[in-house]
Amino acid sequence: ARVMAAQAGVPFFYCSGSDFVELFVGRGAARMRALFKEAAAAAPCLIFVDELDALGKQRSLRLSGANDEVEQTLNQMLACMDGLETSNNGVVVMGATNRYEILDPALTRPGRFDRLV
């Protein structure tokens, strides 16, 4: 992803899914909003989320109420990505995981992480 951004001559934003897992509810979602705001200001650019499964695990696979913070952060990421679809602001989001089969279906539908390489 870094090479793609360099070849395209655009800024590159790197993060890991676990970077957004916080102890206090609301912190991960706030960090996600800040990332997308910074990326939108630097557009065109590329955001790369490594270990996407740490953040995007299927909600049905989580223990009920066990980690509301991760779910809120995932919901915020989905909302930020939906905003990219409508505004066409030049922000491209890529992710990597070794566990594609456990990703939440909301992450893998068209307009989000919908290409598998």
Q: Can you describe what's shown?
A:
The protein is an alpha/beta fold and 117 residues long. It has one domain: 3-Layer(aba) Sandwich (Rossmann fold). Helix content is 44%, strand content 14%. The protein is built from five helices and three strands, in the order αβαβααβα. It has a three-stranded parallel β-sheet with strand order 1-2-3. The radius of gyration is 14 Å and the shape is globular. The two termini are 12 Å apart.
Key terms:
three-stranded parallel β-sheet, ATP binding, alpha/beta, Rossmann fold, 5 helices, ATPase_AAA_CS, about 120 residues, 3 strands, ATP-dependent peptidase activity
Number of strands: 3
- Shape estimate: globular
CATH architecture name: 3-Layer(aba) Sandwich
CATH class division? Alpha Beta
How far apart are the first and last residues' alpha carbons, in Å?
12 Å
- Reading the helices and strands in chain order gives HEHEHHEH
CATH topology, anyone? Rossmann fold
Query: Radius of gyration, Cα only, in angstroms?
Result: 14 Å
Strand content: 5-15%
As laid out across the biggest beta sheet, the strand order is 1-2-3
- The number of distinct helices, counting runs of at least 4 residues, comes to 5
Give me the secondary-structure category.
alpha/beta
Pfam families: AAA
Protein name: ATPase AAA-type core domain-containing protein
Domain ATPase AAA-type core: 1-116
InterPro entries: ATPase_AAA_core, ATPase_AAA_CS, P-loop_NTPase
